[in-house]
Amino acid sequence: MLDIKLIRNDPEAVKAALARRGEPTSSIDEVLELDTRMRAISTERDDIRAEVKQISEQVGALHKDGKADDAAALQTTSRELGDKEKALTEEANELQAAIRSLLLNVSNMPAPEAPDGLTEDDNVELRVEDFDLASYAEHQRVPHWGIGEDLGILDVDRAVRMSGSMFAMYRGAGARLLRALINYGLDRNRDAFEEVRPPTMVKTDTMVGTGHLPKFADDAYHLERDDLWAIPTAEVPLTSMVAGEILDEGDLPLRLMAHTSCYRREAGSAGKDTRGLLRVHEFDKVELYAFCTPDQAQAMHMEILERAENAIRDLGLAHRVLDLACGDISGAGARTYDIEVFAPGVDRWLEVSSVSWCTDFQARRANVRYRPSEGKGTEFVHSLNGSGLAVPRVWAAIVETYRRPDGSICMPEALHPYLGGMTEIPAV
RNA sequence: GGAGACGUGGCCGAGCCAGGUUGAAGGCGCUUCCCUGCUAAGGAAGUAACGUCGUAAGGCGUUCGUGGGUUCAAAUCCCACCGUCUCCGCCA
């Protein structure tokens, strides 16, 4: 959520920033107008409340002195004021609710340094590593779903039978590889990040905190009867971990990581990327997360990016890093770096990590503040998140990249400690 | 799911039954100062967040789980919801 004070003080700057995303700015004007009215009404209401409070004190005193008649007169006045106060309160509440619901649908302002542009074509490629299209041999140019089926490590057909399209099932060595990737993703960040295993079903408020609701309700699974949402990413419960709390500056940065399943309805992408693991409704991911002060944010953004990229690099996968254009940054982010791996079998770059700096946008929604050690009062924290390792697409890239001419797959060395002696998935 | 108890400031904990200078006693913690050679002990003062008005000092308002209601006036009375604990049931 954007700072209402900023909108008041410099609406043009806010609108200019939102325009860089290609987002309509009419709601900012609407917010301004409602806010002006809301404040006028609140002030009036507060004055009446103060008056009622004073009268009530007098009434109490008069009753004590036995002057019931004088008290009765004041009570009548106060009753009238009370009615007025009630009406004003109702109006103020309505305005406040209207402002909030408008603001909840406004995206974060992109950072000034974020590249211009509205689509993914405008993303800036920062670097490409280990990529040479000509270096891939014929045996590597086979899609992972074919390989998976041949080797009995991926069973999409049966997953679809039990859950519908865009679900997958890993089997045998394939399931083991998945488990290795998760442990690999967690262990390499154990030096600085606290491992958390949060709930994967959360309340509506928790989803609002990250910005996934109300705007993106269609993308999330919702359990009607219990009014719970299946998380689309561990970012959701991690953001809520300290919701409503005031942290000490000394505790920042607060680094957290979590492995969870992630659930996405992928509404609007029906028929797109439906094969194999390119896009699935349920997948495993190791998420890296941090709360920090505004001053620490820049360095933390780089740290998470570096950790995510190192995890990919150490697996020996061709990859590139993109600096997302304003229009391609997700709602809560101010600046986002994507990491994509190249999967030779499907001949595509696959997004495997999105490292976002959300400034105080999520902190405002989830009400996470910190107490600066110098000075008084409280400030909103900054929040950052990035996939430490998104399993299915990395799994796919490994299976395709490491396929040998005989159809077997050798395992990246970095995973050997997690595979209990398994160094390859043999051909059948 | 059933029965009972309970939700007060950074923490502990009074106040609620008999509604009225209670933003809330007392304690712990924390900050500053005083005293003592250092420490310990002791003394004094301070110690919430948010909104709004104001250049500021400060004023006003809101917040005792949440939301309603009763009343001139609610931490205190009533209702609903959420949560915690204990017992029972069920269960990996």
Throw out a few tags for this protein.
428 residues, alpha+beta, Helix Hairpins, BirA Bifunctional Protein, domain 2, eight-stranded mixed beta sheet, three-stranded antiparallel beta sheet, 16 strands, 19% strand, elongated, RNA-binding
What does this structure look like?
The chain is α+β, with helices and mostly antiparallel strands and 428 residues long. The chain folds into two domains: 4-103, Helix Hairpins (Orthogonal Bundle); 120-425, BirA Bifunctional Protein, domain 2 (2-Layer Sandwich), CATH 3.30.930. It is 40% helix and 19% strand. The chain has twelve helices and 16 strands. It has helices at 4-9, 11-19, 26-65, 68-104, 144-151, 156-163, 173-187, 204-210, 235-240, 294-313, 361-366, 391-401; strands at 124-129, 194-196, 201-202, 222-223, 228-230, 246-248, 254-263, 282-292, 319-323, 335-343, 348-357, 369-371, 379-380, 382-390, 409-410, 424-425. The longest helix has 40 residues, at 26-65. The two termini are 54 Å apart. 40% of the residues are buried. The mean pLDDT is 92. The structure holds one RNA strand of 92 nucleotides.
